[in-house]
Hints:
globular, alpha/beta, eight-stranded parallel β-sheet
Amino acid sequence: MVSGTTPSIIQPDKGAPLGTRITIPMPDDFHHHGRDGAKTAAVLEHATKQFHRCLFMPNLVPPLTTTEKALEYKAHIQKSMPSNSDSEKFEPVMVLYLTDHTTAEEIYKAQEAGIVGVKYYPAGATTNSQFGVSDIQKCYPALQALQDRDMMLCIHSEVTDPKIDIFDREPLFIEEIIKPLVNAFPTLKMTMEHISTKQAVDYVMNEAPDRVKASITCHHLLYNRNHMLVGGIRPHLYCLPILKAEIHRKALLDAATSGSPKFFLGTDSAPHMTILKEAACGCAGVYTAHAAVELYTTAFDMANALDKLGDFCSKFGAQHYGMPVLTASDRSMTLEKRPWKVPDSYAFGSGTTLTPLMAGEEIPWAVVES
């Protein structure tokens, strides 16, 4: 076992027998961190093989606060593509980084350039969020423009008040921010990204209007906070929103495998150099782009819900974003229940490495064709 990892809860003997094959439409990822510089190419080596589309996060340094910056980053992504057939079919999707100073005019400009929405980071909530929103009401003109243009508000749904326990920040955000926003903007489309609590599941499933949906990561489906903390701290499981108790993991898994179109794939795959994860004050982020679809498949298999996998991975997100939904005849991915061992590390830029989720461990499912 690689230093910093943990024995997983994955149970290869549960679910479908070895050798089982399933084919689904090529998945989309509506939450992906591509980083910048030479590191982008390393991420794309994995992302282009896993996904048809990726919605790239704008929390770079400096952040993508304008249409020009977002388009420059899109061009950088396109220039960083690996030379394989997968990259020719890959579609990067862009959003702006919302700030207190984002104008309605910038939103109109972004929409005309093909940018699908904005990302709302509460200031201080996660990596490179220090430029984010300090008071959401300052953003109301921009949000009105989003609503007018039928664009998406993507949300990191956690309060940042240091007095609030880190495990309680998502439920409080729903009460203090999400519900007032839903009332203030009656047709604005919203994505609560990487939800991590039973309260968020219950809100999206039972209370939120249909225009409010949620993405779920594979690591929140497979791990709880005990895996990160018991017997020693595992830095490669540290992420924001942080892993929660088992009751929350089970609620997320039930939601993802329910067949409800309110939940869809968003990996929040977030690469960091290994030396920055295995540090006295390590970075938040779990890297899953190397095997995201295999990990989601494993979670669905353990829940005996492989028949729900295709819609979660390839349909519900595209529908929410108003994008064409792929069918298996358009482009497909075939997976087989055939264990394979994850490498201990992957190259990440010039002379550095990252440690992927389940480094040195076996994943029960493998992509055999895409």
